[in-house]
């Protein structure tokens, strides 16, 4: 079984015990390239869905702890981040997410940080929320930008270099490949709920909250352009699979 971020926080004791071993810290290099090397040391940064501050674990990361604000729906991740980087700013955001925080509060507004930000980042966050949540959260985050500020978030285009096919193969999901290729050709977006694929839909999931559910959403570049017509969209960099959508204040 493939271990995903959600498993190391909400999975079995065995899966949680892997937390120390699986920490992806390529986010800084990714955004540095996508945003064309800003002077990070002078920028205030909000890492939306920043987990335990994974981006700060890259030794090359130029964001100063004092300027770094991290918000996430996983309480434990925020507390871990606070322990590792005590000079940074940590916020638990108890908003419902069907996978990462199923006991959270639906539609809870983004916290008031008492300030605005030069840069707001969200790496692989709206790849795990519904379409309506992405629209709502991006709109709210844009209001937290300082004048001249930049919001950059990632998304996964299902068709780009076979992204969706790659994910399905890794999951060993049961797929009728002929039907899949037929449907996916025309799909503008799709979701993968516990290995079940839904086209042009957020998908469906059971109401009970004890199971650790995996939830992925894929949007074509064209679809994201329509959702955010004033944004700039950049293709993946550094051999990664996620596109970047950049919104200026
Ligand atoms: C795949 S992880 C990525 C974590 C981090 N950005 C990184 O690059 O390592 C997705 C993160 O988004 C967080 N998340 C999901 N929905 C959220 C929401 N509505 N507000 C804030 N964080 C959210 C999850 O708790 C999780 O930490």
Question: How would you portray this structure in words?
Answer:
This protein starts with a helix and ends with a strand. The strands form two sheets. A seven-stranded mixed β-sheet has the order 3-2-1-4-5-10-9, sandwiched between helices. Strands 7-6-8 form a three-stranded antiparallel β-sheet. The protein is built from eight helices and ten strands. By secondary structure, the protein is of the alpha/beta class. The chain folds into two domains: 25-155 and 229-248, Rossmann fold (3-Layer(aba) Sandwich), CATH 3.40.50; 160-222, no CATH class. The chain has helices at residues 5-10, 13-16, 27-34, 75-84, 131-142, 163-171, 177-186, 221-227; strands at 45-48, 68-72, 89-92, 117-122, 145-155, 189-193, 196-199, 215-219, 232-234, 243-248. The structure holds S-adenosylmethionine. S-adenosylmethionine binds next to strand 2.
Task: Please give the structural blueprint.
Layout: H1 5-10, H2 13-16, H3 27-34, E1 45-48, E2 68-72, H4 75-84, E3 89-92, E4 117-122, H5 131-142, E5 145-155, H6 163-171, H7 177-186, E6 189-193, E7 196-199, E8 215-219, H8 221-227, E9 232-234, E10 243-248
Parallel strand pairs: 1-2, 1-4, 2-3, 4-5
Antiparallel strand pairs: 5-10, 6-7, 6-8, 9-10
Short structural description:
The protein is α/β, with parallel strands linked by helices and 249 residues long. The protein has 8 helices and 10 strands.
List keywords for this structure.
single chain, 249 residues, alpha/beta, Rossmann fold, 2 domains, 7-stranded mixed beta sheet, 3-stranded antiparallel beta sheet, 8 helices, globular, binds S-adenosylmethionine
């Amino acid at each position: 079984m493939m271990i995903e971020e959600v498993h190391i926080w909400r999975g079995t004791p065995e899966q949680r015990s892997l937390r120390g071993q699986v920490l992806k810290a390529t986010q800084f290099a990714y955004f540095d390239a996508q945003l064309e090397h800003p002077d990070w040391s002078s920028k205030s940064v909000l890492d939306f869905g920043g987990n335990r501050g994974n981006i700060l674990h890259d030794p090359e990361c130029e964001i100063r702890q004092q300027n770094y604000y991290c918000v996430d729906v996983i309480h434990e991740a925020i507390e871990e981040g606070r322990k590792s980087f005590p000079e940074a700013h940590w916020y638990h955001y108890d908003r419902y997410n069907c996978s990462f925080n199923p006991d959270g509060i639906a539609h809870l507004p983004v916290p008031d940080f008492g300030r605005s930000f030069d840069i707001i980042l969200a790496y692989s966050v709206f790849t795990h929320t519904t379409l309506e949540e992405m629209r709502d959260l991006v709109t709210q985050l844009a209001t937290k930008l300082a004048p001249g500020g930049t919001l950059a978030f990632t998304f996964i285009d299902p068709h780009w270099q076979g992204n969706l096919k790659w994910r399905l193969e890794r999951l060993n999901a049961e797929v009728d490949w002929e039907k899949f290729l037929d449907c996916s050709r025309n799909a503008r977006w799709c979701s993968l709920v516990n290995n079940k694929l839904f086209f042009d839909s957020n998908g469906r999931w059971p109401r009970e909250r004890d199971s650790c559910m995996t939830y992925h959403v894929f949007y074509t570049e064209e679809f994201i352009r329509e959702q955010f017509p004033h944004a700039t969209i950049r293709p993946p960099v550094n051999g990664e699979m996620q596109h970047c959508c950049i919104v200026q204040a």
